[in-house]
Amino acid sequence: MTASPELGNARTASPDLLRSVFRQHAAGVAVITAAGDRPVGFTATSLNSVAAEPPLISFGVGISSSSWPVVAEAEHIGVHILGEHQQELAATFARSGADRFGPSTYWRSGPEGVPVLDGVLAWLVCRVVARIPAGDHRIVIAQAVVGDPAGSGRPLVYHQGRFTALRD
């Protein structure tokens, strides 16, 4: 039997509390991309499988994000599952003001013109079906159109505020 959490340590909900709680939650790392006048992308740890039929995914994006104006209008987006060898790529797409599609990022224009990153474990191009307001974010729901799950390696994980790898 495990001990119950200490209720005496409970704190009133706040942005800091939410961040502290979710530092305890290990999450897979993805990069979301979209094509506009220029390609945009960002690192996401909020990626979820929503339904198998039809094949739907969701992710959150901050409305203050530099990528949001393009994602807000995009008909299609790219979803890329990163491998443990791609910590620097994850950091580049997470860094504000970074040249995310510069010389160190290998990518090509994929189906529907969506930027597709090279060397990822898996990728999807999805058609956006909904953008749902959620505080200072939007939850994007998209239906998979085409993809490739055939990359090799182990997934990149985000835990305790840093990128890391799974351990056996």
Automatic annotation (TrEMBL):
The lineage of its organism: Bacteria, Bacillati, Actinomycetota, Actinomycetes, Kitasatosporales. It is an enzyme of class 1 (oxidoreductase). It holds the Pfam family Flavin_Reduct. It comes from Streptomyces laculatispora. It comes from the Bacteria. GO terms for molecular function: oxidoreductase activity. Its EC number is 1.-.-.-. This is Flavin reductase family protein. PANTHER family: FLAVIN REDUCTASE, FMN REDUCTASE (NADH) RUTF. Residues 22-165 form the Flavin reductase like domain. Keywords: Oxidoreductase.
